[in-house]
Specification:
This protein is an alpha+beta fold. Helices cover 32% and strands 32% of the residues. Strand 18 and strand 19 form a beta hairpin.
Length: 411
């Protein structure tokens, strides 16, 4: 049975700050091939940039520096709508495309709140340029290549002072970074802009929690360099890769969470799918709707959100912003969840991820990712049912069936 890369967790040390190129450098240092990442970027903005890497030192610490060089002059500034169109046309793995979308959606929503616009109206400047697109696409492709299926990060150093942007002289942290920092652990960390909007979007869109280095079986460490070499403070991002799965026989651990609820009877029901997807993208463990009847016999919905404790303030605020409600109630809950990891399965004409839920290394459920199957079915012009059947058969051939023993991350 092969499951190379399954269940890999990435912990990001951003205590010196974070930028897209720094995180990219750390992932290249951890083993992501530059040629693979160049191919992913070329799929989105063909012929526009060239990636190059080199070993450098930062305050005496070895690191990998990745530079993004323009291949053509007069690179365009792009809007969120432009980037969505580029992603639709790009030949990317489904998981990579969705992660890139999630990161830019996070940026768009932050910029929209800062400037008082709708997210679709946001026109990016610094973060919509070719180099930021390259950073985001390459980081997501690197995570996919390394088999990363979950991510967490340290407290993030944001910096202090002022910086010159296309909007003028702004305080540090810049407004978009500060918006995205809500619900995450942060610190000043020193002078200057230590966390860029692109870096902050990558961390907060792709991480599930903010924590110190978690217990794990470590695989490798990657170190990525920023541009500046600051005496006495290594300007680097570190990525630690490993397995976080419970050892066999360890009992399930209950986790304290919050259930946030609100009743809504005056909102266009067509909006609900976007509300649910936004809450999930912002870190909700789950989000769902319950049809109810309110006073005076009005049909309505209860919006319920299962929130990790460190994300509840952000998710509560989003519930108030995304719906017409004027109040949110909260109750504490405990959740016991099976450990899980993802395995990429090759089916004829594409790739479908398999979500494997296990207890102590024994498979309980093995379920193909439906969205992947939909994409493959569309590309092949066949029914989704057929792709799902092929994925289930591939999972059985690989030994991922209930009752079988697996070790996440093992080959």
């Amino acid at each position: 049975m092969t499951s190379a890369g399954a269940g890999v967790h990435a912990w990001v040390d951003a205590t010196a700050g974070v930028a897209g190129d720094m995180l990219l450098g750390a992932l290249v240092d951890a083993g992501a091939p530059l040629a693979v990442l160049q191919g992913a970027v070329d799929a989105v903005i063909p012929g526009s940039i060239r990636l190059a890497s080199a070993l450098v030192t930062r305050a005496g610490m070895r690191a990998t520096k990745v530079d993004v060089h323009p291949a053509v002059r007069d690179q365009a500034q792009r809007s969120w709508r432009d980037i969505q169109a580029l992603l639709e046309r790009a030949e990317l793995a489904a998981g990579v495309r969705e992660q890139v979308r999630r990161v830019f959606r996070r940026l768009a929503e932050a910029e929209a709140r800062v400037h008082g616009l709708a997210a679709d109206e946001v026109h990016f400047h610094e973060v919509g340029s070719w180099d930021s697109i390259a950073d985001v696409v390459a980081v997501c492709a690197a995570l996919d290549f390394l088999g990363v299926t979950s991510m967490s990060c340290s407290a993030v150093a944001l910096g202090a002072g002022r910086v010159v942007t296309s909007h003028g002289h702004l305080p540090v942290p810049v407004p978009a970074v500060l918006e995205m920092a809500a619900g995450w652990r942060v610190l000043s960390g020193g002078e200057g802009e230590l966390a860029t909007p692109t870096g902050m979007a990558l961390l907060t869109a792709l991480s599930q929690e903010s924590c110190d280095l978690p217990a794990m079986s470590m695989h490798t460490v990657g170190v990525g360099a920023g541009t500046a070499d600051i005496a006495g403070r290594p300007n680097v991002v570190r990525v630690v890769l490993g397995d976080r799965g419970d050892p066999p026989g360890q009992p399930d651990e209950p986790v304290i969470m919050s259930v946030l609820e609100t009743n809504v009877d005056d909102m266009d029901p067509r909006v609900w799918p976007t509300v649910l997807s936004s809450l999930l993208a912002a870190g909700a463990a789950d989000a769902w709707l319950i049809p109810i009847i309110m006073k005076k016999g009005r049909p309505a919905h209860t919006l319920a959100v299962l929130a990790p404790v460190h994300r509840r303030d952000l998710l509560r605020r989003l519930m108030l912003e995304l719906t017409s409600t004027i109040g949110v109630r909260e109750v504490a809950a405990t959740r016991v969840a099976l450990d899980r990891f993802w395995v990429p399965l090759q089916v004829a004409g594409g790739q479908v991820r398999l979500k494997v839920a296990h207890r102590g290394g024994e498979v309980v459920h093995a379920t193909p990712e439906f969205d992947d199957a939909v994409e493959v079915a569309a590309e092949r012009s066949v029914p989704v049912r057929r792709v799902l059947e092929e994925a289930v058969a591939a999972a059985e051939r690989e030994g991922f069936v209930p009752g079988s023993q697996v070790q996440p991350g093992s080959a």
